[in-house]
């Protein structure tokens, strides 16, 4: 079993969007629903506030790619999990399941949500302490156009016009099981060109978009949030596959889309032969899409976030990552967001916006615990003083201490409060 410890969507717009920070939650709840706590998240069944989620990756992931790309794609998934754990400051951790992934079809037999398939359960000797279920909490697959599944009586279908989709099985406000699917019919890569500003990328044809977040239309821990993903741990993999982090590729062209029944297809020309609903052949001139960028985005859905640029049309609240205050819906229309609904280039780590969304859904269990070690000590007070003097606090840090003034920043009143708490 692999265990990891984390270190401390999509259209090209004619003009750059104004700088703004915001997030929206899965299924775009209205602000009144948010205030009532009527939002989707992974359950806190043990009462600690921490979430340990299991994951499993299908052995037959991206069968149309060469072996090097397939291996690198697995590394990209693992790095994406680590990046989200970093963004949560270790409140969310991930551990590899001891059983294979299972698709969460409504028709798939299960006793509980997490567990091996019934076939694997029988092969394991039918252990009573491990009933059969729908695989890990988050399973990763790839499928070709024409693949269809149902979860929560919602149809999900792989089409030519989407990079993939995330099937989220809900139970009230609980996220219970997630499957993330990549589209086999695309050219996938983990390589970033040496010149991120290169203008050679194709422009003009309309390219695919993310699915609508599963809507009907190791342990990875953390010593603190990071601003960029680290490269995979295997240096050989890094060197041989040109696995680079932090640069951005030129955006690829306008991709507008319509959604229904749990899938999206790009309007007009998309990847392959638009509109046939089956697996069209891949052209040698088709662009490549970054695996990690796709997985990071879909994991945002898996954890409870949605497309902020769609909130206005769907009646959802757009919120401030530092305070959860409601913002104008135009604040979500920024193509730099990881959760933006169009593929606009390489984005391999959650940003301030997504960190704020995670902090809203999965807050620090102990107020004032800035280093997230489960207690308030003088070390937290020292961190608070540094943040008050120097600035640069993350949304989670602000939320952990902004208890006195509640103005979205760390003030002296909060520092004084935390110093007193640390001495008690």
Give a structural overview.
This protein is of the alpha/beta class. It contains 10 helices and 13 strands. It has helices at 31-35, 67-87, 118-123, 235-241, 291-303, 311-314, 352-361, 378-390, 395-401, 412-423, and strands spanning 51-57, 92-96, 138-143, 148-151, 154-157, 164-171, 174-183, 187-189, 257-260, 263-266, 288-290, 318-319, 326-327. Strands 2-1-3-7-6 form a 5-stranded mixed β-sheet, with helices on one face. Helix 2 (67-87) links the parallel strand 1 (51-57) and strand 2. The radius of gyration is 21 Å and the shape is globular.
Summary, kept brief:
With 424 residues, the chain is of the alpha/beta class. It has 2 domains: 293 residues, Collagenase (Catalytic Domain); 46 residues, no CATH class.
Considering the chains and any ligands shown, give keywords for the structure.
two-stranded antiparallel sheet; disordered N terminus; 424 residues; globular; 2 domains; single chain; alpha/beta; Collagenase (Catalytic Domain); five-stranded mixed sheet
């Amino acid at each position: 079993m692999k265990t990891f410890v984390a270190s401390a969507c999509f259209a090209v717009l004619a003009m750059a969007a104004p700088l703004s920070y915001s997030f929206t939650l899965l299924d775009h709840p209205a602000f009144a629903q948010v205030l009532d706590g009527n939002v989707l998240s992974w359950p806190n069944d043990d009462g600690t506030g921490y979430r340990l989620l299991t994951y499993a990756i299908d052995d037959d992931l991206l069968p149309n790619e060469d072996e090097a790309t397939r291996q690198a794609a697995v590394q990209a998934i693992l790095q994406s999990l680590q990046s989200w754990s970093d963004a949560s400051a270790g409140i969310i951790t991930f551990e590899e399941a001891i059983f294979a992934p299972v698709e969460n079809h409504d028709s798939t037999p299960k006793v509980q949500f997490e567990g091996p398939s019934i076939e694997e359960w029988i092969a394991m000797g039918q252990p009573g302490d491990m009933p059969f279920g729908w695989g890990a909490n988050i399973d990763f697959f790839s499928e070709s156009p024409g693949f269809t599944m149902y979860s929560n009586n919602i149809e999900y279908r792989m089409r030519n016009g989407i990079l993939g989709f995330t099937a989220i099985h809900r139970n009230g406000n609980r996220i219970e099981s997630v499957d993330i699917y990549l589209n086999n019919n695309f050219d996938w890569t983990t390589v970033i060109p040496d010149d991120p500003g290169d203008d050679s990328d194709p422009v003009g044809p309309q390219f695919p978009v993310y699915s609508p977040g599963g809507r009907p239309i190791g342990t990875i821990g953390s010593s603190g949030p990071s601003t960029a993903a680290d490269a995979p741990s295997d240096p050989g993999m890094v060197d041989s596959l040109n696995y680079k982090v932090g640069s951005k590729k030129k955006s690829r062209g306008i991709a507008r889309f319509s959604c229904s029944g749990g899938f999206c297809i790009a309007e007009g020309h998309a990847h392959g032969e638009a509109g046939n609903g089956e697996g069209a052949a891949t052209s040698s001139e088709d662009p490549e899409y970054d695996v990690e960028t796709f997985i990071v985005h879909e994991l945002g859905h898996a954890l409870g976030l949605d497309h902020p640029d769609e909130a206005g049309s769907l009646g959802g609240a757009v919120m401030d990552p530092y305070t959860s205050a409601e913002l104008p819906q135009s604040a979500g229309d920024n193509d730099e967001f990881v959760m933006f609904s169009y593929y606009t280039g390489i984005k391999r780590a959650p940003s301030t916006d997504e960190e704020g969304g995670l902090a809203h859904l999965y807050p620090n269990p102990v107020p004032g615990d800035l280093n997230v070690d489960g207690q308030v000590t003088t070390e937290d007070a020292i961190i608070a003083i540094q943040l008050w003097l120097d600035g640069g606090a993350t949304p989670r840090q602000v939320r952990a201490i902004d208890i006195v003034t509640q103005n979205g920043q760390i003030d002296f009143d909060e520092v004084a409060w935390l110093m007193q708490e640390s001495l008690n």
